[in-house]
Amino acid sequence: MNSVSREAASFGPFRLFPSARALEKNGVPVALGNRALDILIVLVERAGQIVSHRDLITRVWRDLVVDQGNLRVHITGLRKALGDGQGDARYIANVSGQGYCFVAPVAFAPSIDGPAQQAKYPCASARQSLTLPPVLGRMIGRAESIRTVTSDILTDRFVTVVGPGGIGKTTVAVAVAHTMLEEFADAVCFVDTSTVKDSKLVAATVASTLGLTIQTDNVLPVLMECLKSLRILLVLDNCEHAIDATAALAERIFNETEGVHILATSRETLRVEGERAYALPPLKCPPVDAAVSAEEMQSFPAFELFMERAAASGSRIELNEHEAPIVADLCRRLDGVPLAIELAAGRVGTHGIAGTARLLSGRFGLHWEGRRTALPRHRTLQALLDWSHDLLAERERVVFRRISIFVGKFTAEAAAAVAADDTLGDIEVVDTLDVLVAKSLVSAVASHDGITRFRLLETTRAYALERLDESGEMPQVADRHATYFARALEVGAGKVGETFRRGRVLSSAENLGSIRAALEWCFAADDRADAAVARLPDPDAAIARQVRASLGIELAAAAAPPFLELSLLNECSRWSSTALSHLDESTRDTVREMVLQEARAISSSWAHGNADNVFGAITRGLELAERLDEDACRVRLLVGLHIFMLRFGDFRRSIEVVDAFDAATQSSKDATHAVLSHWMRASSQHFTGDQAAALQTFERGFALHGVRNIQLFGLDYRVRAMVTFARVLWLSGFPDRAANLAREAIDEAAGMSKPLNVCFSLLYTAPVFLWCGDYDAAREVLDKLVAHPNWRALPSLHATERSLRGELLLRLGETERGASLVAFALRSMQDERQNILAARTAYVTAQSLASVGKSEEALSTVREAIARVESGGEALELAELLRIEATILLSMPEPDAPAAQARLAQSLACARKQRAPAWELRSAITMAQFLAQQQHREDARKLLADVYSQFTEGFATRDLQAASSMLAELEASASGRPPSGAHD
Predict the structure, then answer these.
(1) In the sheet where 14-17 sits, what is the strand order?
(2) Which of 299-303, 347-351, 786-790, 890-894 has the lowest mean pLDDT?
């Protein structure tokens, strides 16, 4: 060896041999990776100088393109190897924004002896034994995890990848190992500890994998001596199988060696010195968002993996907007666990996407076979979970299977209530729960309220649920589960009679799955429940069914608020109706029946629009509230009855309901009751045609300071009042204020995130924009409405939307489509007795019929509508109906001018009586046109001018623009000059 090769740079206790590419400390070789060694050589060569990031990257990575993150990782690892920062030792300084500088004194001198030789493997065959499992040809969604683990391995030396079975720990570990081959000069040792049946053999297994032949029973000392001389990456896979022995070995290796880096995988952390845990996350799934397209879903790793594995199984899928959400839902139900997704996707070729979803729902997925080349424990999920289950202690198995009854998240308190019994105490359950978390069979999630929530992955839960079935404990556990939620919801809401008040403490969304499952169990909709009862003798079976039904009634009453809070109207209707059908002598005429009647009334009203069911539930609920002296419920039901009367067109009786409300709250000191009374009365005045009174009453109500944003009968009452007030403002001659208030109502509803409020505000502000002639705004709110994810759950409102959409199309000149929609909407409203916009729909239908020459049919339609509104006490649309009838009479092949003039006069009188300048203006425009055609131009001008002068705003709206234009024409005609701005 020549002198150049022996030249050494000395600093502190270290000697660096650049040509020999070696570093030693106090004469002992120091194991460094190639990149770290290259960086050190460059910095030492230019000691005392700032070496820029760019120069270092160029020298070390040469022709490769890397970012500064790679450099930082290796600098960190190099500092740790040198002991930089320990005591007074300072070697590498970071110069912010510029680069790095080697700051320790360096002496260059020839070396007589050269660097110490690093130990080699005993023989070539030993080195050849370091074979890695093959890396997957393509991994999806794990690039960031691989980068992070690789970086942590270099800087911290000891990393454990933690996660449940099937999450992909081994896949990531193998990928990291292949990535680090160059860094460790191919010295990467992969040890699968799952093959070790005896924990005493862990050290021997590591030694044999390294290729060491140790002729002694005490393997550990020899193994440690060998490892001390090596720079190697040791991968310990599946440590949970022999967790204690593996943890002890890993800790000793970390403490007693400098060149061994450890990468472990386990369902639980090893909990030893030096360990850095990395929790491997599930693959990201598409969100539950109707706005996410099929194309956008394909960018999510879980979705991408599913599609790739489905294709690999021989399935040819042309994904469309219908199937993409099913795949997304499958990925979410499988919790983004790669193994579960792969096994599910493998069924698509045989069963299709929808069929696979049904199979998974049936829990057949536990037995699906995976890739033939997979490890035995990964061949099926059943094998995977059997393998995990066999490692549990008996008490752990008991708690594991019992908590599988929970669907979604649950608290330690809930687990104790369900899993504890005479032989297993609450504290033991909670302690065992912690053990299951440590073993990655249960996930723990921190919450903003400081209470930790737990959950089982869907695949793990399905497995545990089968174990629960097999144990024979299902009936007792399911009963305790249902009882817990019935009590917890009731406690959270106060007494049951006050269920619909605000302030519930039990989170609705996170417990929804368990509430549903408990209801299914109580009402025997679950086959397992029927089977459990069927095994009992006949008398006992009958008693068991009744006891369980009574529990279901209690739970359904307590669960109504969560269903309504989450706008799950169909479910609320289903379960309240089911519970009511199971009432017996012990549960009838109780507070719970009253609550269930209220829940059915609210949910059926908005979800189904069945007038008989809704009215029956309200009246029965009011009867019970009075009998049981439940004033709060009575007040709520009176509000609901008022909404019912308006929706179904009985406007006269709606005023009687307000009077009853006032009588019921006469002694109340709650200012909110006064606010509600004003808003209810103003709404009735609006529909019965007294707009001046409605305007004043609304203004008095909004001036009071009661509680804002009260959910009553499914709606926020302030939003409802704002929407109706906007209509009153338009009719009263304030179109700008009306439009502004309509937009404010939409914004306020959107801020609450309650779907029914949002849909209601969008739907019932559309008429205001149509009246104003702002067709762009009308189209926008209707488009937002039908795009809302909860719109399909509100079929009782669909006819109204079709009516307004048809009216918009007619106004925009799309006669055929518009006429078809409004005609269909009118038939639906008549069939369903939905009358709140029926009069408006009728006159729009009549206009469309007249526009295509069907004058007789148009005349019949409008006259039927007039008769209906007069019988129901509605006067809101009467002036407009009379005006439309007049226009039809004038458009007939043989116009009836006298009758038309009489109807126009009635229309004007009706509008004036209502103090509705907006209707009066429309009627005045039509009458002015008629009078002008009869050569009574001055009378026409005077009539229109008098009405137009009442307005102080809204001059950009269509009706006022039309009136202004006509006035200009009439004034020009009277003076003999052309109207202002007329050039054609």
Answers:
(1) 28-29, 22-25, 14-17, 7-11, 107-110
(2) 786-790
CA dist 193 and 199 (Å) reads 9
State yes or no: pLDDT of 498 exceeds 70. no
* Beta carbons of 818 and 833 less than 8 angstroms apart: no
pLDDT band at 504 (very low <50, low <70, confident <90, very high): very low
481 with 585, same domain: the answer is yes
| Lowest-pLDDT range of 78-82, 344-348, 855-859, 936-940 | 344-348
List the domain range (segments joined by +) for residue 602. 394-628
Beta strand pairing call for 50-52 and 28-29 = unpaired
Kindly provide the b/e burial profile for residues 525-545, where b requires at least 16 CB atoms within 10 angstroms of the residue's own CB. ebebbeebbeeeeeeeeeebb
Same domain (yes/no): 427, 353: no
515-555 confidence digits (pLDDT tens): 988 999 999 754 455 555 555 555 566 677 788 899 999 99
The candidate with the shortest Cα–Cα distance to 257, out of 28, 567, 508, is 28
Give the relative orientation of helices 34-45 and 68-82 as an angle to the nearest 10 degrees: 80
The string of DSSP letters for 585-610 reads TTTTTSHHHHHHHHHHHHHHHHHT--
**HSE-up of residue 777 (Cα within 13 Å, Cβ side):** 18
Distance from C-alpha of 234 to C-alpha of 254, rounded to nearest angstrom: 11
The model's pLDDT over 219-270, given as tens digits with 9 standing for 90+, comes to 888 788 778 878 899 999 999 888 999 999 999 999 998 889 999 999 899 9
Beta strands in 229-360 (DSSP E): 232-237, 260-266, 276-279
What average pLDDT does the segment 914-923 reach? 94
Where are the alpha helices (H) located in 143-268, listed in sequence order?
143-156, 169-179, 202-210, 219-228, 243-256
3-class secondary-structure state, position 401: helix
Select from 915, 932, 964 the last residue of a domain: 915
pLDDT tens digit string along 434-476? 888 877 788 887 777 778 889 887 778 888 999 999 999 999 9
Cα 770 from Cα 269, distance rounded (Å) = 64
Rounded to whole angstroms, the Cα distance separating 131 from 177 reads 11
Of 139-148, 725-734, 814-823, 907-916, the least confident: 814-823
Same structural domain for residues 651 and 517? no
What number of other Cβ atoms are within 10 A of residue 855's Cβ? 20
Cα angle 722, 734, 968; round to 5: 155
Burial state string for 624-645 with b = 16 or more CB within 10 A and e = fewer than 16? bbeebebeebbbbbbbbbbbbb
Rounded CA-CA distance 800/552 in Å is 36
One domain, residues 131 and 249: yes
Taking alpha carbons only, the member of 428, 420, 422 closest to residue 403 is 420
The mean pLDDT of the chain is: 84
Q: In CATH, what number is assigned to the domain containing residue 899?
A: 1.25.40.10
Q: In this predicted model, what pLDDT tens digit does every residue of 637-664 receive, in sequence order?
A: 999 999 988 887 788 889 999 999 999 9
Long-range contacts of 871-874 (CB under 8 A, 24+ apart): 872/649, 872/650, 872/651, 872/652, 872/835, 873/650, 873/651, 873/652, 873/653, 873/688, 874/649, 874/651, 874/687, 874/688, 874/689, 874/835, 874/839
Contact status, residue 324 vs residue 289, Cβ threshold 8 Å:
no
CA pair distance 455, 408, nearest whole angstrom:
6
Query: 81, 110, 139 — which closes off a domain?
Result: 110
pTM for the whole structure:
0.67
Residues 6 or more apart in contact with residue 64 via CB below 8 angstroms: none
Q: Could you tell me if residue 745 is inside a domain?
A: no
Under the banding of pLDDT at 50, 70 and 90, the label for residue 507 is low
Nearest C-alpha neighbor of 495 from the set 668, 633, 636: 633
Q: What's the domain count of the chain? A: 7
> Is there a single domain that holds both residue 843 and residue 965?
no
Alpha helices in 523-607 (DSSP H): 527-534, 538-565, 569-581, 591-607
Give the pair of three-digit tokens for residue 169: 């720990």
